[in-house]
């Protein structure tokens, strides 16, 4: 080999090993780009292409003293809409104004210089225009913490994209409206505008009704309060007496009020806790009901008595007592009789998309207790993260519990939702067994049942990447049997799909026996975690938003469900999955829960509940956008025997904006805004009565909602299956 050939070979090898250095990119270059690249994102218009696309302009200004190189670097961003939907997703990407844009997974896109890109000189400006799918009308739609890196170098967050100051104002109609078009016989108009100060004042200009008559929220069934007669606990000589079965409630009370515990009943100045049958009148019928209580505050004889149907009832009586108590421990004469309207009064908390530590969960439990909420729907996993450690499956949290820049996703999953390139921040974190059991104990003390959700078979990107990392490690160590035990993806599946959140790899395969090995491992571990504190009663498997085309070309599924390649193949496989999952959980005496579409065929037909082995199946009815025709699912499922948890997104999703204003944070896929009036006005027993407007803000007609003959609006026949609200 001659000298020139050797030099060429050496250069080629170095280019492969140190591509960033060959391109002239060093860590200092990346640091300078991150510091000096001033990015501004502007929506130009949502209204030029019907419902299909909106126009975006990125303006890049070089605030530094050196040029931003013409190649060698890549910017990674989270964008919640598909960019250039006519071309992406496509591994080849698409070039716009000298920038190549490639979709990776979820909301992650790569922006890198194409061959026509020129270096940006100091004070130079580069404008890039592209199209996005549908529309963007809120600043928080544009996720922060864009970052820049190059192969072999440390990624850096671009300083100008921290926060949302880099997002331009939505100061024109074409920016804050989603659509406004008429094409042939089709038309749709966005009726919402940001509130003016005058309009905001008008809708809040409510007559002063004086002091609220509601001493306690939620309002008890019966309440009588006489403020002319009071007692004062501030003397600090009051005691609480209780039977042993109410030790938890007595301890709670001593932490909230200046009272001490005793077993000896004094003549006065005592709070007595007791469990006895409590009869309440509901719909004109006198009856006993779980969690009912009575509360008596008797100033003349200086005592307070709380009697509960059960310990939970006593606890809720304590909460009502706390509501009546002033800051200086003055309590008016009162008589309250109360019982809950629904057995299930819940709150969902999603820690998969953004992680929160156990201390935040504790604070949430304290607030739930005040409002007598008793179910905690714990959304622990999703595409963006797996948040609970399972012994023997450490990769679930080691990989799936962290987000950072790792294109192979072997050490962590790629950043999503603006979490940035490092594991610092809300993109990363998980609960250990000890953390989880502390959460269970804190919940138990407040009579809150924890319902863990492990979302599958869709929404499993983090799970799939974690288990693939585990598989690869075991194979490399020669542990093939262990590697195969929990395989979740069919290697011969060539199906192509894209989920609502833009993942193309977020489904586990229900046709592999190893999938059920994994699920049983998860269920058994959860049973163990709960056992000594709060026995696991309900396992929530998610089941929602499985993308069209999933498993269609799976060899394993063609063996299990012979006609899985037909247009309804996904539904057949999903129903098979639910039946297998039901068998596993029923074996352990656990009830099953899912989002509504997790237990339904395409459209509005529920699965045959008689084929499911659990005592109860809870279905969370969420997808009720009125004009989509699914609002009847809740009542259909209830009539078929499912226990329904009302979770309607148009009224009960708190991640939506409070006003239709670009400055208000939140998504708006179900409704343009949700305020307290809408939520407090929600009528679970009259679902169609909640339908006032379509997503556009246009009034919705009865025909649009129920069809010409009214058949779409299925009536609720089995009220007993309306479990509650989440």
TrEMBL record:
> Which reaction is recorded as catalysed by this protein?
Hydrolysis of terminal non-reducing N-acetyl-D-hexosamine residues in N-acetyl-beta-D-hexosaminides
Keyword list (alphabetical) reads: Glycosidase, Hydrolase, Signal
Catalytic residues (positions): 545
Q: Which domain of life is it from?
A: Eukaryota
Q: Offer an example of a GO molecular function term for this protein.
A: beta-N-acetylhexosaminidase activity
Q: Might you report a single GO cellular component term?
A: membrane
Q: Which Gene3D superfamilies match?
A: 2.60.40.290, Chitobiase/beta-hexosaminidase domain 2-like, Glycosidases
UniProt KW Ribosomal protein keyword: no
Q: What GO terms in the biological process aspect are recorded for it? A: carbohydrate metabolic process; glycosaminoglycan metabolic process
Q: Which PANTHER family match?
A: BETA-HEXOSAMINIDASE, BETA-N-ACETYLHEXOSAMINIDASE
The protein's name? beta-N-acetylhexosaminidase
Q: Which organism is it from?
A: Octopus sinensis (East Asian common octopus)
């Amino acid at each position: 080999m001659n000298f020139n050939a050797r030099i060429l070979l050496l250069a080629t090898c170095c280019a492969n090993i140190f591509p960033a250095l060959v391109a002239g990119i060093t860590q200092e270059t990346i640091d300078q780009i991150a510091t000096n690249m001033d990015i501004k994102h502007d929506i130009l218009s949502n209204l030029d292409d019907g419902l299909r696309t909106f126009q975006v302009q990125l303006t890049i200004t070089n605030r530094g003293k050196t040029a931003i190189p013409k190649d060698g670097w890549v910017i990674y961003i989270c964008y919640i809409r598909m960019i250039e939907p006519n071309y992406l997703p496509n591994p080849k990407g698409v070039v716009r104004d000298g920038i190549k844009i490639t979709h990776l997974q979820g909301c992650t896109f790569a922006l890198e210089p194409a061959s026509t890109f020129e270096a940006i000189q100091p004070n130079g400006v580069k404008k890039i225009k592209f199209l996005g799918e549908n529309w963007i009308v809120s600043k928080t739609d544009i996720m922060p913490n864009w970052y820049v890196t190059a192969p072999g170098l440390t990624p850096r967050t671009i300083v100008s994209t921290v926060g949302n100051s880099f997002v331009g104002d939505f100061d024109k109609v074409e920016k804050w409206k989603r659509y406004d078009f008429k094409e042939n016989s089709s038309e749709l108009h966005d009726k919402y505008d940001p509130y003016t100060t005058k309009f905001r004042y008008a809708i809040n200009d409510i007559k002063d009704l004086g002091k609220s008559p509601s001493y306690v929220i939620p309002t008890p069934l019966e309440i009588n309060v006489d403020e002319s007669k009071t007692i004062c606990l501030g003397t600090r000589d009051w005691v609480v007496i209780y039977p042993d079965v109410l030790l938890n409630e007595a301890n709670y009370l001593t932490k909230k009020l200046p009272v001490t515990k005793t077993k000896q009943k004094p003549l006065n100045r005592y709070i007595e806790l007791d469990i006895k049958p409590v009869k309440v009148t509901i719909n004109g019928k006198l009856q006993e009901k779980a969690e009912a209580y009575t509360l008596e505050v008797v100033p003349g004889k200086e005592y307070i008595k709380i009697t509960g149907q059960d310990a939970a009832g006593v606890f809720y009586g304590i909460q009502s007592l706390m509501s009546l108590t002033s800051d200086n421990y003055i309590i008016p004469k009162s008589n309250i009789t109360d019982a809950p309207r629904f057995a299930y009064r819940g709150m969902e908390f999603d820690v998969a998309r953004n992680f929160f530590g156990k201390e935040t969960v504790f604070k949430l439990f304290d607030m739930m207790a005040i409002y007598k909420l008793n179910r905690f729907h714990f959304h622990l996993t999703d595409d963006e993260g797996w948040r609970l450690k399972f012994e023997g499956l450490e990769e679930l949290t080691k990989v799936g519990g962290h987000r950072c820049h790792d294109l192979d996703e072997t050490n962590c999953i790629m950043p999503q939702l603006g979490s940035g390139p490092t594991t610092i921040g809300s993109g990363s974190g998980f609960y250990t067994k000890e953390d989880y059991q502390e959460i269970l104990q804190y919940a138990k003390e407040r009579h809150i049942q924890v319902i863990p959700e492990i979302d599958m078979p869709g929404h499993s990107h983090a799970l799939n990447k974690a288990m693939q990392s585990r598989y690869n490690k075991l194979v490399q160590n020669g542990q093939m049997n262990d590697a195969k035990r929990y395989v979740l993806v069919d290697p011969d599946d060539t199906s192509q799909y894209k989920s609502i959140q833009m993942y193309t790899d977020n489904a586990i395969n229900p046709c592999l026996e190893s999938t059920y090995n994994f699920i049983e491992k998860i269920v058994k571990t959860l049973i163990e975690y709960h056992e000594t504190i709060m026995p696991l009663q309900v396992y929530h498997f998610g089941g929602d938003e499985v993308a069209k085309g999933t498993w269609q070309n799976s060899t394993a599924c063609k063996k299990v469900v012979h006609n899985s390649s037909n247009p309804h193949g996904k539904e057949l496989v999903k129903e098979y999955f639910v039946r297998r999952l039901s068998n596993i959980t029923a074996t352990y005496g656990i009830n099953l829960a899912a989002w509504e579409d997790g237990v339904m065929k395409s459209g509005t037909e529920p699965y045959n509940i008689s084929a499911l082995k659990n005592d109860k199946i809870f279905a969370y009815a969420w997808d009720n956008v009125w004009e989509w025709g699914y609002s009847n699912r809740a009542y259909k499922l209830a009539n078929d025997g499912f226990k329904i948890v009302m979770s309607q997104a148009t009224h009960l999703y708190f991640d939506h904006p409070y006003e239709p204003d670009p400055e208000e944070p939140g998504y708006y896929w179900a409704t343009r805004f949700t305020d307290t009036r809408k939520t407090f006005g929600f009528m679970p027993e009259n679902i169609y009565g909640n339908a006032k407007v379509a997503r556009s803000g246009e009034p919705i007609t009865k025909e649009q909602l129920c069809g010409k003959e009214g058949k779409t609006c299925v009536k609720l026949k089995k009220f007993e299956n309306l479990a509650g609200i989440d």
